[in-house]
Design goal:
Blueprint: H1 2-36, H2 40-43, H3 58-66, H4 69-100, H5 106-115, H6 121-124, H7 126-136, H8 142-146, H9 153-163, H10 168-176, H11 181-189, H12 194-209, H13 213-218, H14 227-236, H15 243-274
Helix pairs in contact: 1-15, 3-15, 4-9, 4-12, 12-15, 14-15
Length: 279
Amino acid sequence: MRKSTRKKANYIFVELGLIIVSFFMFLPFILAISMSFMEPTEVFSYPPKFFPSSINFKNYITAIELVPMGRMLFNSLLVASFTTLGKLITGTLAAYAFSSFRFKGKNILFSTLFVTLFLPAETVMILPLFMLMSNLGWVNTYWALIIPFTASATNTFLFRQHFMTIPRSLEDAAKIDGASAMQYFFKVLIPLSGPMIAGATIINFVYAWNMYLWPLIVTMQDNMRTVQVGVKMMISGESSNNWGVIMAGTLLVALPTLIIFFLLQDLFVKSLVNSGLKE
């Protein structure tokens, strides 16, 4: 009885601790939602208010009208989607080559690829990338926003490590049944990599969605800019002191990533449950 009571007490203590920590983690987000419905006088009122006196969508309308938010959301969605797709395709194919094939210089190539993980790509490569995009005539186009980021050493490394955990006997059995290398890749390896693909999709999409420096440099017109640049334009523009409008714009920008996360989180959990393998 004492052990059972102690376990229950520990469980309750842990749950309460997690609830408290979660509350403080979500507090900035809750305050942002609250401020997005406040009038400017309420935002700067003293003592400060934590909840608006009324629900008012005026700040959201102002945020949409202040910058071409609809076009910027479309640009970010297009760029993030195709960048993520490109990273998944190149990452899985390269990882398959490094994990399953034998070729001359394989270890040297993989070691070189691994070293590039320690390079801050957006700062080290930004000038050469811009010069290349300029020479190709891709400045202020979707090509410049997407193509340079469709390959990732991080994805290749993570997928390669994951593929090496899949039993080799599955590949041998597929070859005995007459499956080619690409048939094994698409019909066996990819279906068994659901959790990894779901996790990589979330990480890559959020990374591409949150890019700021490269879109700012490579785009010259507002109709080609992404939402992160749009938020900065709101902060630097006429609404620099209207934090209700800024919070409304920030929430509009964050909403798509939250939707993607929650949709793929369910897929991620289901894949974990259904992807158990035993040698």
